[in-house]
Please model this.
Amino acid sequence: MILDKKLAVFGAGDPAFAEPLHVGRPNIGNREQLLRRINGMLDRRWLSNDGPLVKEFEAKIANYVGVKHCIAMCNATVALEIAIRALELKGEVIVPSYTFVATAHALQWQEIAPVFADMDPHTCNINPETVERLITPRTTGILGVHVWGRPCDTNVLEAIGRKHRLKIMFDAAHAFGCSRNGTMAGSFGECEVFSFHATKFLNSFEGGAIVTNNDLLAEKIRLMRNFGFKGFDNVGYLGVNGKMTEVCAAMGLTSLEIIDDLIATNRRNYEAYVRLLYGLAGISAIQYNPAEHNNYHYIVVEVDPEKSSLNRDELVSVLHAENVLARKYFWPGCHRMEPYRSLQPNAALLLPETERVASRIFLLPTGQTVDVATIEIICGIIRKALSESTSVRAALRQTV
Ligand code: T4K
Model:
């Protein structure tokens, strides 16, 4: 333990805190409802392949977001791959480096080069000003990511797309339930991709979806999700198995029923963190625009090493020692991960803000399993560590 026993309650005191506190603990809806759905599924003996629960889930997601089509998938990574292929992207696609590596992998997996654009440090999203100068004759599209659920500058990206005849799509893995200028994420670009992974705001164990208002694109994606089958024996496209199972749809539907409660819990937790971290030099939580719909699913803290007495890595080490497993998403950026590090060894030169901000951010636990009393303890650990930074740093050096 880095701090003295009074604050080091995790593991040392209350047995309720003996288990590590994770970022990304799944939210779980009404168990009876879930089990009722699963029992119905077992009775029907229809477990996958566009079953009734998947159809119901798709209709409810489309309705919630306000889009014409939702095609549910086994996960968002496969959904991204299918969307990219359905849009016939090739050559080079511009994408932020500051994202989960799945965004870049979905391109590289199909031998399309992800060209990394820098972020706007105020939003953590792709900076449209850096995008235009990356366009080459090989560029076919822009894949924006709504990082932390705060949608990208969709209007400017769409305008760049029109000007250069590029296709625009969005990785909305974080953004289910979030809006930009009142329009829900899901309606921007040619199509958008949600993740319903266990760690996400809305979870279906594993899962994802492509949403679009384009009828032809939706039809094509639906076929591609199921090996390209257009009927019993007729294959119309190169396809893959991207199908969502019925049990995942059962979980997704059950999660959808508690969405208002989840937003309220996440918002309560976010506001508690903001209040309890307030006034700490060099420490700030990212802001959500209260005029928009937000899911408040991510507690993202930025550490300014010029003003804070401990840097991001030191604070995360202290939290880990206290059993709070804070995460450094999306450090060090895709461009510093393989295969991109080897393929594009000079990419960092064009990514100064990504390099700077990625080294300052960490995420804290939230969701149903975290209450305000726990947040008080977490923020107390941070506060105490900062106020005792000299001894904390010495203790950290000993543990290395
Ligand atoms: N695009 C973006 C922008 C994304 O953030 C993601 C996924 C994707 C695309 C791809 O979506 P999917 O294909 O996954 O649908 C986790 C998630 O696995 C990943 O879905 C997510 N982003 C990413 C941000 O976080 P890891 O490698 O950090 O996972 P892991 O195993 O370290 O778990 C994360 C935390 O969650 C841990 O603290 C443990 C906790 N956890 C996890 C699971 C699965 C639980 O407490 N219970 C659980 O059941 O990627």
